[in-house]
Amino acid sequence: MAIQVPGKRYGARLSRSHFFSGHHSTAKKSTSADLLITPLVDMFVIIVLFLIANFSATGEILNMTKDVQLPSASHIKELELAPVVMISSTDVIMNGVAVARVSDLSREDYLSIPALEERLREEKKQTEELHVAAADGQAFSGDVNIQGHKEIPFKVLKRVMFSCQNAGYGNLNFAVLDSGSKPEGTKTAER
After folding, report:
1. To 5 degrees, how large is the angle CA 152–CA 158–CA 161?
2. In terms of Cα–Cα distance, which of 83, 125, 84, 89 is closest to 105?
3. Cα angle: 4, vertex 33, 17; to 5 degrees
């Protein structure tokens, strides 16, 4: 028995038909398709260049959560990469780690937040060690980004600002929304 090409098999009556027998075209169709490599490489190069052009090398400056609704402002500047102190309606968070509860801070009368100061001092020490190891001669700037819920009490915000100042972070930047932009555009209020 001869080897047959896979495909549909028609009955005896239809196989004698000119149309169903497969003899209706005079040209032979190729069963293999050639893959053109040059256009494929060109397409991947274009995709890679597009991704590189649209990729932000600085990464995310702020972590947006549903617990924190930022206030809006009209005179703003872009935020720079710095440690982030987030004040939600329940917690004070430094770089993703909770350091204090807002309810406790509202009841107490003293200004500093020891756990926040300690974390900020550790961050400052690591930054200074990195600059010394890199020998880039860059001084510690003292920048910190404060991302606060728009309805937190001023007493809590004042304590966070005081703790940042005590830890050596004198340049406070507040994350706000541009009053003329969408919620994705987080910026800092001008000082």
Report:
1. 110
2. 89
3. 40
User: Which residues, including other chains, have CB under 8 Å from residue 152's CB and lie 6 or more apart?
Assistant: 87, 89, 102
CA distance 141 to 166: 15
Instruction: Give Cα separations from 183 to 5, 23, 180 (angstroms).
Output: 61, 66, 10
Say if residues 91 and 103 touch (Cβ distance below 8 Å). no
pLDDT of residue 54: 76
Q: What is the pTM for the complete model shown?
A: 0.60
**pLDDT by residue (tens digit) across 21-61?**
665 555 566 666 677 788 889 999 999 988 887 775 555 56
Supply the DSSP string of 14-52, one letter for each residue. HHTSTTTTT-S-SSPPPS-----HHHHHHHHHHHHHHHH
Question: Please, which pLDDT band fits residue 191 given cuts at 50, 70 and 90?
Answer: very low
